[in-house]
TrEMBL record:
Membrane topology type: Multi-pass membrane protein
Protein's UniProt name: 3-ketosteroid-9-alpha-hydroxylase reductase subunit
Keywords in alphabetical order: 2Fe-2S, FAD, Flavoprotein, Iron, Iron-sulfur, Membrane, Metal-binding, Oxidoreductase, Transmembrane, Transmembrane helix
Domain FAD-binding FR-type: 224-324
């Protein structure tokens, strides 16, 4: 469907928010890496052989990576809006494996280094260090916990574990952080030999742990106490899709944008402990919030039975899938299945000429299609409903170019099942759409 388009609006100018945030993180990490090296050299190497020196340096950089990991998953709004939880979580995972091998190197080099000074073998020296030096046993427990978390975070294990099980095991990381920090305070040469180094490490850990406290505990608690969300309506959209409307206090002061999502907890007797990520399916209007979910198991199937008036604890808003990252006046939105929910919210907020391609298996799978028709008509947008089986690819490069000849001159927002999203991203690259104009978020990584 095509109607008269609305006047185009100018895209944001200046440096892209994601570039600014990503560069800032790199600069912070590099500056701290230099600081660690400086304090390490200032502490000196008296009484150490090469293995002990390497082990100490590996331990210090392991502590730095551990603090950086905490920052990545602190869910600080400034970082999350610019980079996105999915990318931050992915970086956290990669840094985590680097941390694991750094700490293993620390333990191995320290053990072998001290073994050179004694008549003991490596295993006996390891036991000797653990039983005679304060703080070493705590460090060993921390390393074991990090190895356990690393094992369950490997792809082959993560795919076989329920999210709740994986998340519960992952919480042991905080215990590992505490044990590792007390080990560093107790026996860390660099920590204890210089007042400046001591102040640096206390500040580093204070910022890292403080960020987690603020982003993951204090801010969600404060927002929920302030806004007092409750379910105001539960509306079935189809046999397997339901929309939930929520109202609360001062929602005009909740910094949510179209395209973002929350981790929702509906505080009923059987659901209060479950947090599920659902995108807003309507642009926030300061009066209410709406999510739309498709049945994907017993948990989501029970959503249509939530009583009106149920209190809601919502963590968020999260995500960088917003108009903050626009670079062009005009936009192409591509949605697949229930991935239409954040796309529908974006359509409501966008200015300039917009084309929406909605990919579904059949007409009856087109969730919220009536609303899309009304929105497209009101905003002068083009709406294309593309139906049919997954193969052949109906969003192949030539198909997209036929529907949107000026695709390379538009921002493109993509949301859908992982397979479809990956295929569309490949097709857009083949069409020559610049990378900075392609926006997507892998919501399966939320939480």
């Amino acid at each position: 469907m095509t109607t008269v388009q609305s006047p185009p609006s100018a895209p944001p100018t200046g440096l892209r928010p994601r570039v600014v945030a990503r560069t800032g993180l790199y600069v912070v990490l590099a500056a701290n890496a230099v600081a660690v090296a400086v304090f390490f050299v200032q502490a000196g190497f008296a009484g150490s052989n090469a293995l002990i020196v390497l082990g100490r340096l590996a331990g210090l950089y392991g502590a730095l990576l551990m603090a950086f990991q905490l920052l990545l998953v602190a869910r600080l709004p400034w970082l999350d809006r610019r980079i996105g939880m999915d990318r931050l979580t992915s970086w956290h995972r990669r840094v985590g494996f680097g941390l694991l091998w750094t700490l293993v190197a620390h333990a191995v080099f320290i053990t072998l280094g001290y073994a050179q000074f004694s008549s003991l073998g490596p295993v006996d020296e390891f036991v000797e260090l653990a039983t005679t030096i304060e703080g070493v046993l705590r460090a060993i427990v921390a390393l074991v916990l990090i190895m356990l978390v690393g094992a369950v975070s490997a792809r082959f294990a993560r795919r076989r574990l329920a999210y709740e099980t994986w998340h519960f095991i992952h919480l042991y990381t905080y215990l590992a952080v505490l044990l590792a920090f007390t080990h560093q305070v107790t026996v860390g040469t660099t920590f204890t030999t210089s007042p400046a180094a001591t102040a640096y490490w206390w500040t580093l850990w204070g910022v890292a742990l403080g960020s987690v406290f603020v982003g993951r505990l204090a801010l969600p608690l404060w927002r929920n106490l302030r806004h007092q969300l409750r379910v105001s309506a539960v509306v079935p959209e189809s046999d397997n899709v339901v929309s939930i409307y929520m109202t609360g206090r001062d929602l005009d002061r909740l910094p949510a944008r179209a395209g973002q999502f929350f981790l929702w907890r509906f505080l009923t007797r059987d659901r209060w402990w479950q947090a599920n990520p659902f995108s807003l399916s309507a642009a926030p209007d300061g009066r209410s919030l709406r999510l739309t979910a498709k049945t994907a198991g017993d948990g989501t199937a029970a959503l249509r039975h939530i009583p009106v008036g149920t209190r809601v604890f919502a963590e968020g808003p999260y995500g960088a899938f917003t108009t903050l990252h626009r670079t062009r006046p005009d936009t192409l939105l591509i949605a697949g299945g229930v991935g239409i929910t954040p796309i529908r919210a974006l359509l409501e907020e966008l200015h300039g000429h917009t084309v929406l391609i909605y990919r579904v298996a059949s007409d009856r799978d087109a969730v919220l299609y009536g609303e899309l028709l009304e929105l497209a008509s009101a905003k002068g947008a083009e709406l294309h409903l593309v139906t049919g089986p997954a193969t052949p690819d109906k969003l192949a490069p030539e198909a997209v170019a036929h529907l949107v000849p000026d695709v390379c001159d538009r921002d493109v927002f993509v949301c859908g099942p992982p397979g479809m999203t990956s295929a569309v991203l490949r097709n857009l690259r083949e069409l020559g759409v610049p990378k900075q104009q392609i926006h997507f978020e892998r919501f399966s990584l939320a939480g």
